[in-house]
Amino acid sequence: FDVTAGVFKQRVRPQGAETEVWGFNGSVPGPVLRFAQGDKVDLHVVNKIPQGTTVHWHGLRVPNEMDGVPHVTQHPIELGGSFDYRFAVDDAGTYWYHPHQSSFEQVPRGMYGAFIVEEAKPVQVDRDLIWILADYKLNDDNSQVEDFGKILDFAGDGRHGNVITLNGTAAGADRKLELRPGERVRLRLVNAASARLFRLE
User: Fold this and answer.
1) β-strand 33-36 against 113-118: which pairing, if any?
2) Hey, how many other C-beta atoms are within 10 angstroms of the C-beta on 154?
């Protein structure tokens, strides 16, 4: 797969202007990367954001040099540069990917996505859904508040946004999952917020 980190606009709130975000392949969340257990993965990542970046494969067992930790396992991918991540996916499950370079800024700007490894023997369900929960800190005009990396956030409980999102758009009280009697739903949950805890009901 080709994965490009870029800058673009996306509708986060239903009203008002679109928000400038950073993300993968032109959407927040980025594309769902879905593989079968045992597959060999080859991901060509290109950087088009205005700072260096990496991609970390959260929860996956990968070779150390593929773990996406800047200045430890690899050099950051600079603007206009690329890096090839190659590894096998031996463990089935729900994972996610995001930068470890300036993750206090790049993740809240929208750089994250789901990574699914299907079981060799699939679980029998009627629907397989992914919910990626996150938050943005937005001004009244829907622009992002540019206060990333504040020392008070590092010293306290982190940077909390004022707009909670579900799969990239504002999650309101009307966001419900309708179920049929007897239906089997696999709900894959990812918390991509930089600091917020979520309680679902």
Assistant:
1) parallel
2) 10
User: Are 24 and 43 a contacting pair, CB within 8 Å?
Assistant: no
The SS3 of residue 57 is strand
Q: Where are the alpha helices (DSSP H) in 44-114?
A: 103-106
Q: What whole-number distance in Å separates Cα of residue 132 and Cα of residue 109?
A: 14
H/E element, 15: none
Q: What is the DSSP letter of 43?
A: E
DSSP structure class, residue 51: S
Instruction: Specify the DSSP class assigned to residue 73.
Output: T
pLDDT digits (tens, 9 = 90+) for 73-101: 999 999 999 999 999 999 999 999 999 98
Task: Please provide the size of the chain in residues.
Answer: 201
DSSP conformational letter for 112: -
| Six-digit token string for 124 | 């029998």
* Residue matched to tokens 């020392």: 151
3-state helix, strand, coil in the chain (%, to 5): 5, 40, 55
pLDDT per position as a tens digit, 146-194: 988 777 776 777 889 999 999 999 977 667 888 999 999 999 999 999 9
Q: Residue 153: how many CB atoms within 10 A of its CB?
A: 16
CA separation for the pair 199, 53 (Å, rounded): 31
